[in-house]
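Batch manifest line 581
LIGAND: thiamine diphosphate
JOB: complex structure
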Amino acid sequence: MNHIENLTRYIANFVDELSKSGLTDVVISPGSRSTPLAMTFAEHPEIKEWIVLDERSAAYFGLGLAKQTKRPVALVCSSGTAAANYFPAIVEAHQSRVPLLALTADRPHELRDVGAPQAIDQIKLFGDYVKSFHEMALPESIPSMLQYARTRAARAANEALTGNAGPVHLNFPFREPLIPDFSLENLWGEPLQEPYTIWHEGQKRLSDSFMKQFAAKLSSFKKGVIVCGPQVKEELAEAVSLLAESFGLPIIADPLSQVRTGEHATNNIIEGYDAFLRNEKVRNALKPDYILRFGAMPVSKAYLFYVKDHIDVNQYVVEHHEGYREPVGNPTEFILADSVSFCSDLLEEAPTIIAEDNEWLAQWKQMNEVVKKHIAKVADGSLTEGEAVKTLVEIIPDNSSLYVGNSMAIRDVDTFLMTSKKKLTLLANRGANGIDGMVSSGVGAAASGQPVTLLLGDLSFYHDMNGLLTAKHYNLNITILVVNNNGGGIFSFLPQASNEKHFEALFGTPLHIEFQKAIDMYGGSYYNPTTAMELKEALQSSYKEKGLSVVEVKTDRTDNFHWHKKLWSGIEHEILKTVME
Ligand code: TPP
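JOB STATUS: finished
ARTIFACT:
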């Protein structure tokens, strides 16, 4: 068989098998070496291709789309630095367990390490940040090689998704000529009903005898705390709230736990812990007998202090597959089990632990009420950062996603997102907490068709303005709320802020630029509200519009620091005076 037929059939079988394995989207960046992959994906009837020029943005776009859909997304790029630009998103996908397939084109072996153009060493380029790496064979179309292409495709798609999801890297050597021939008969191979290779994954569940013992152990304690950290399983909300109600326990619910909002019972959910656990006396008064955590470590630093202060407390961390996410270093029992089944299994063994006279829960709720009261009062009409976020979380539409940037954005969402019946999906890049790739991630999530609001700071926005191009190209519905405090607002809360000589240049890093001009360039609607009411109206109009809208709220870093301090000290004061007297 000739070269073109080998190339065409090999890649067509590969791409078709990805489709049969559940892949629906591919993000393609332009380049010559990747032509066989790019053209074949574009030709495949079942796969939607997204063309994103900048590979760094492309990979974050794929990450956002995969986070939103929980399906693997493929990335295709040319050789050289094109592939290296995937690195930050691959790191984030690895750390926050998102299924991605990096398909990088490469020179054939005879053109490697000999000074050929656009050639770098792509073998294991992403190191241990991928679940696996495979160097694909050169294209051939004898039956065994078409089987090989199919099995490698299915393995990669399934590997990215099973266990702890994550990225997988396949590197493709291609010899010229590179253009496939789609007129070949039976291009997509035999029309199999089923994928060539199928994976079945079971849920981890602990034995009945363990669950009996564990339930008996928990029953011997009065003061338990359930913690829901960042996690993506929607069903956990219902299961964990049933468990908490029947055990009479508070749930410390991180904003990224998917537990704060939704139709489930929210009576035991404590959203205000970040405010009141800042105080050491409060942390001591709320010393638990045990902590049962689902998901990753919460965002809140006050919660981290709470755990640190209570090293002698039994801590149980539930992981659905495997992992070590206990950054405090306290003694911990890891429970490797599906979180939802674990909750119901535990309920079965110990249906009701604490029924009445539950002072423990009452104390948590009382403190939470104080926080809620103070948060509700935050509204004097001026537009502080806190008020901006509070307004956003109040009016964000039902059945939509909120993609939250790092730095102050996620912390303010932690403070202001209260329980509600709205169905919101909370997304963030908390695997590695980068301020890069945020626009592309949000736009990627919007590519799923789900309405998305992205909340982020001005440095994060600037870092990834390239990401706006894809929103324009595909007319994706996204509202971006940029809190522009002209620099890194979070640093005002750190000890570095007291170093007058270096602070502004090294940490504050103001940009002094006008974003409106950039938004115009990308054809987006631009709003610049100056009061809470104007912000509300701007957001509401943006939700009615199609395409890209950017709402910029201009604030001041120093004012923001004092504003937050005042809010926290008001809460602290009242709790010490009324609840802890
Ligand atoms: N570079 C990357 C890629 N990620 C990071 N987390 C940092 C640097 C360090 N960093 C953390 S927060 C921050 C920086 C530079 C400032 C972010 O500023 P902005 O996005 O405007 O948010 P604000 O602090 O004002 O809320």
